[in-house]
Amino acid sequence: HDTESIDKIRSYALKLTSNEYQGGLHFYDTGNKYLDGLLAIKRNMASNNNIHFDVDVEATLRNIQVDDVDLTTIVGNIVDNAFDAVDMNSPDKKKIVALSFYEEDDKIHIAISNNGSEITEQHKKCIFEYKYSTKNKAAGDRGYGLFIVKELTEKNKGEISFHGNDVETEFLLSFKKFTKSKDGGKSNKDKSNGVYIQQEEVL
Q1: pTM for the model
Q2: CA pair distance 165, 120, nearest whole angstrom
Q3: Please, what sign has the CA dihedral across residues 116, 121, 123, 129?
Q4: pLDDT at 42 (0 to 100)
Q5: CA distance 170 to 74
Q6: What is d(CA 32, CA 121) in angstroms, rounded to the nearest whole number?
Q7: Contacts of 72 (CB under 8 A, 6+ apart)
Q8: Which helix (H) or strand (E) holds 51?
Q9: Contact 60, 151 (CB under 8 A)
Q10: How far apart are CA 17 and CA 34, in angstroms?
Q11: For the residues of 182-194, what is the DSSP string, one character each?
Q12: Gap between the terminal Cα atoms of the chain
């Protein structure tokens, strides 16, 4: 299933690159064509579900130290999780999801926030666990999304944290950058294999 989804994203991204597809969707320029295609699809999905989806690209992802397939899977799952959270909002409450990409402290950061219900203290302890889900189990939801995000973040030596209150919940992912050598190639200054996964408690 994941392979089929990635193939669809790749196909869509190639169409965007060759300008063969003009479906009236919003176009993004993150520096990663696969992710651009994915975000266009998610934007359309948000529009169809009355979700205000704001994407702010302040830094290019060309040099992010994450495999292309893993990056699209990470962002796809974290966005889906946010969409699911706001879908449970009461009818009189707007559904808002904000995604941003920015550079700070020589790292690329991916932040996503939503105005869904506050995550309880009990759920905070198991939010990244296998098959965890706040959704209705009777609907067949498996709850793999955040578990996959955590696993792929670890695989790519990234950091992930989250915090929330009664206003919003935000997940923050941080990854190292490739540094370009004089010949234009990519080299990695930091060969550390260290992995850091943090869960921030609400202050």
Answers
A1: 0.74
A2: 9
A3: positive
A4: 94
A5: 15
A6: 36
A7: 6, 9, 32, 34, 35, 38
A8: strand 51-57
A9: no
A10: 10
A11: TTS-EE-S-----
A12: 39
DSSP conformational letter for 48: H
Let me know how many helices (H) and strands (E) the chain has, helices first.
5, 8
The sign of the torsion formed by the CA atoms of 83, 84, 85, 91 equals positive
pLDDT value for 166: 86
Which helix (H) or strand (E) is 95 found in, with range?
Answer: strand 95-104
Tell me which amino acid residue 101 is: F
Q: What is the pLDDT along the chain (203 residues), one digit of tens a residue?
A: 556 666 666 665 555 544 444 455 578 899 999 999 999 999 999 999 999 999 999 999 999 999 999 999 999 999 999 999 999 999 999 999 999 999 999 999 999 999 998 887 777 777 777 655 555 443 334 356 788 899 999 999 999 999 888 899 999 999 999 876 434 554 454 433 333 333 333 33
The phi, psi pair for 3, rounded to 5°, reads: -65, -40
Three-state DSSP at 100 gives strand
- DSSP-assigned letters across all residues of 130-189: TT--SS-GGGT----HHHHHHHHHHHTT-EEEEEE-SS-EEEEEEEEB-EE-TTS-EE-S
Reported as half-sphere exposure (CB side, CA atoms, 13 A), residue 186 has a value of 8
**Cβ–Cβ < 8 Å for 149, 161:** no
Answer for the pair 198, 161: CB distance below 8 angstroms, yes or no. Answer: yes
